[in-house]
Amino acid sequence: MTNHLDSFKSRKKLKVGEKTYVYYSLKDAEENGLEGISSLPFSMKILLENLLRYEDGRTVTKEDIQAIAEWLTSRGKAEREIAFRPARVLMQDFTGVPAVVDLAALRDAMTKLGGDPEKINPLVPVDLVIDHSVIVDEFGSPKALQKNVDLEYSRNGERYNFLRWGQQAFENFRVVPPGTGICHQVNLEYLAQTVWTRKEKVATEKGKTETVEVAYPDTLVGTDSHTTMVNGMAVLGWGVGGIEAEAAMLGQPISMLIPEVIGFKLTGKPREGVTATDVVLTVTQMLRKKGVVGKFVEFYGPGLGSMTLADRATIANMAPEYGATCGFFPVDSETIAFLDTSGRKSERVELVEKYAKAQGMFRSRATPDPVFTDTLELDLSTVQPSIAGPKRPQDRVLLSDAKSGFAGAMETEFKKAADLAARYKVEGKNFDIGHGDVVIAAITSCTNTSNPSVMMAAGLLARNAVEKGLTVKPWVKTSLAPGSQVVAEYLTKSGLQESLDQLGFNLVGFGCTTCIGNSGPLPAEISKAINDNDVVAAAVLSGNRNFEGRVNPDVRANYLASPPLVVAYALAGSLQVDLSKDPIGVDKKGKPVYLKDIWPSSKEVEEFIQKTITKALFKSKYADVFKGDEHWQKIQVEGGKTYKWNMSSTYVQNPPYFEGMEKQPKPVEDIVNARVLGLFLDSITTDHISPAGSIKAASPAGKYLMDRQVAPADFNQYGTRRGNHEIMMRGTFANIRIKNQMIPGVEGGVTKYFPGGEQLPIYDAAMKYKDAGVPLVVFAGKEYGTGSSRDWAAKGTVLLGVRAVIAQSFERIHRSNLVGMGVVPLVFEEGTSWQTLGLKGDETVTIKGLSGDLKPRQKMEAEITFADGSVKKVPLICRIDTLDELEYYKNGGILQYVLRSLAA
Predict the structure, then answer these.
(1) Mean per-residue pLDDT of the chain
(2) The model's pTM
(3) 716: CB partners within 8 A, 6+ apart
């Protein structure tokens, strides 16, 4: 039973059709003391409603609620912490498997502490969508989909067996089986409701209890940074590490600072030939330049009127790339229309509209602009066709400048400008390859495959190309991996899949594929030609991530582009073709064909959408969403309330977080005479710290697998082996492209072991230090931990024995994940870095003040002793930001904190 305070008398009833709901009225709260809140940004209204609904005097106080009203004056500049409780949690399988492993381990640990293992259950609804495991092994053939699915099940049997156990063992936990779609697109098309409801027991005035149905905004956290995609349909949510998600599942509030909200005004409408992808790349570049890390971004202005929900979702999806916590769009008539078209129940659609209007959360043309911390503006008619690369999503280049941009990157990034024109023979083939040749062209990732306008455009461009007799260059690995079965269905129904197939864009699977590094191997002879000749090969993908080393180990230049441009680049075959003015190929009569000759009009794209995308299509594809195919249904499940761990499994193992744990935490110890494990530069991503891609045979993880008789062909990849801490520890800091500045000029996960300075893999050095009882620290530059919310980047760090990471600045999720695993994040004062201190990595580091009366954001000092015996004292700020985080840290991590709370 819930025990609510209601300081602002906001609890009231809302009748919708035959049903009556209880809700927390912002209009009443405004009349009862929260002055001016109708001017708040829409995203802030959702946070405010969350606090009103959970006011209990302890985790949420009257003062917390007032602080949201005071936001109108402070605009988010006053640093105040609030407790946010999302309605639900979304997971994908890379991060979901370790989360379920941790739940299973918590049940074991609860039993050891003498508690009831069944207390360990998600307390809020959790949906796990298996979408990260399909790899593009087979491509360019009608059998590609079936072969890739068969391989996926043969590689991932142990993981899938474990998830099927979880599906049965835990309450409030649903699994969407493989082959359904990408979690964010399934969320957009099916799981999300915009307004959520829940039955609750409440006390009546007469001292009895009654059950009521409460209506409130749909909110969530997801274990994938692109959770923000659903902000496009007015659902407030963002990516968190698996660690925070587990805490949310177990009923812990997420502590957050009341954010600044940047208003992004959209005016006008895009010109003919400009896609949603071009818009999002422009928005991403503008917001990166503005600097919105840790802030909310909310879109407003007349430009929303001409924007489809799919276009909004495309922009919202890339919030991690522009650095914001979320990219929010309010409810309006377009949201209501989309909920209806995508097959949501009519009662729900009616509830969303009535609720949003009752709460002042419905945007119309007459809605006054909210108050924002700051604003920026884009006239959509000024957007031009663009791509982004060669290695960051914010590095936008106009399509007309792409050729010269690549030539510039060859000079500055790759230092190979001299042999820009060189071509190299491919063994056994009648073609050669050169720098900038597109060896991967992938229509992939939820960002764009959720958007019918760009998917139809890709299909129509393919149809036009086939009609002119154009073909894809023979060195291009082509693939189509839509984010849901709905997309595959409408491409087939429209007849456009046939043309895509003729160009080699056959369906390869329903999942993230190339965007997360599951591009699969290149044909052996092409891989050999690239590596023998140090060719800077290119990938063009419709994804959101193009970091170095991510897409494919053989490919160094990666460009993000719209699906029709992916097809166009596959036809052109090279970044050294200027698509804006060079021919893309020749027709059947030998005449040159230009991109403009095959580019479909927006009118034709819209006609195809209207003709083929219907409510019936969504309803049929989501009718049995949790059932799965025959592969899934055949999986046999073992184990009851606790899991039967298989000690020989190389996929799923019981992690060591709770070994020797007692009911009371031991006091934290200061860090004394720690050694340096790594010195890193700016923008070290979670992908550098904990790669998701392929496992090299010579790496510590590869050796571990070979010692257990796993052949390199069956290594799978780090992402799929996240349920096994032994592999993930060995993979920490093991990215092939990471550069530890202790060994300048060397790439890969190596360090120097002191005293002595022996060069070793990072894992091996860390284990030697652990055996010797020596604590470790890591130094880094700015934006440490950018990229995906990858919990293993924090889990691996702690298991290597790292006690502190000292950087110039941290990415939001990774910082909180480090705290959640009991590692202290520390930042230098402005103007100081490990370079200004002259560190080489042979120093020792002592940090005192952790064992005493530590406070959030406390000023501290590191004592650094250099090899010559000299000592420097360096001021630092402890980035344990909140009191809740401090509790987690003192307990050794968030899971230990939750376990002790539940056991007590």
Answers:
(1) 94
(2) 0.85
(3) 155, 156, 695
Same domain, 170 and 244: yes
Give the CATH number, domain containing residue 595. Answer: 3.30.499.10
199 and 312 inside one domain: yes
Per DSSP, 600 falls in state P
Quick one: 142 and 220 in the same domain? yes
Give the C-alpha separation, 191 to 188, whole Å: 7
106 and 253 together in one domain: yes
Range of the domain at 166: 88-382
* C-alpha distances out from residue 246 to 126, 158, 544, Å: 10, 22, 25
Q: Which of 604, 621, 638 is the last residue of a domain?
A: 621
pLDDT recorded at residue 1: 43
Q: Write phi, then psi, for 391 (nearest 5 degrees).
A: -145, 5
CA distance 660 to 126: 30
Residue 891 is predicted with a pLDDT of 96
**Are 811 and 683 members of one domain?**
yes
Label residues 530-552 b or e (16+ Cβ within 10 Å = b).
Answer: beebebbbbbbbbbbbbbbbbbb
**Residue 356 · residue 265 · CB < 8 Å:** no
Q: What is the pLDDT of residues 522-566, one digit of tens each?
A: 999 999 999 999 999 999 999 888 887 789 989 999 999 999 999
Burial per residue of 597-631, b for 16 or more beta-carbon CB atoms within 10 angstroms, e otherwise: ebbbebeebeebbeebbeeebbeebbeebeebeeb
For the chain, the distance separating the N- and C-terminal CA atoms, rounded to the nearest angstrom, is 20
Strand order in 195-203's β-sheet? 11-16, 19-24, 209-217, 195-203
Least Cα distance to 689 among 789, 757, 580 occurs for: 789
Shared-domain flag, residues 146 and 286: yes
Residue 156 resides in a domain: yes
